[in-house]
Structure formats: structure tokens, C-alpha cells
Design a protein that fits this description.
- By secondary structure, the chain is mostly helical.
- It has a domain at 52-102.
- The protein is built from three helices and no strands.
- It is elongated.
- 12% of the residues are buried.
């Protein structure tokens, strides 16, 4: 296996920026339960805990269709992951809100 040649400092910057975007700009599907008061907040925390791993695996699988580790720069994979993550979280928030906030 050949060693990949890329600018590690550039990748660290892209990775940090994408993490900031994911943490601060993504939708929170557990907020849909806040209309139920304190019980809703507890349900929302449990919901968020239960969906964290499946969302990661779904997003990681989708990114695998577009990103090839051997030929692409790692920054491209990080950017694709962030875009797909934001799309999945927005879809999940929309569905959760439509189901529980009637």
C-alpha cells in the first residue's frame, strides 16, 4: 500500500471546520419533542442517543458510494460526509416534526 501524499494541515483545517458546522449548524430532531414539556425533553434525549450510531453508519455508507480512499484527498471525504450528514439530519428533523408536532 502506497503512502498517501496530501497536505495534513489543510486536512486538519477542513476537518475542524466541518466538525464545527456539524455541531452548530445541523438540525436537532429531538427538538420536536420539546412541545411535550419535561417528559418531551427526556424522550428527546433518549431519541438522540438511539439515533446517533445508525445515522453515522447510514451517512458513512452513503459517502462510501462517492469517495474513493485511494484516489481522493481526505478533505473531499470530510466535506462529502458533512453535506450528507446535514441532509440526513434535516430530513430526520422534518419527519420527526411532522409526526410528533401535529
Amino acid at each position: 500500500m502506497r503512502k498517501r501524499d496530501y497536505n495534513k494541515n489543510f486536512y486538519k483545517g477542513v476537518k475542524s471546520t466541518n466538525k464545527f458546522i456539524r455541531d452548530n449548524c445541523s438540525e436537532d430532531p429531538s427538538k420536536a419533542f420539546d412541545v411535550l414539556g419535561t417528559v418531551g425533553k427526556i424522550i428527546g434525549m433518549i431519541f438522540k442517543y438511539l439515533i446517533a450510531k445508525p445515522v453515522h453508519f447510514i451517512v458513512f455508507g452513503i459517502v462510501g458510494f462517492f469517495y474513493k480512499k485511494d484516489s481522493h484527498h481526505p478533505s473531499i471525504g470530510s466535506i462529502i460526509y458533512t453535506v450528507v450528514f446535514l441532509m440526513v439530519m434535516t430530513l430526520l428533523t422534518t419527519v420527526t416534526t411532522a409526526l410528533f408536532c401535529r
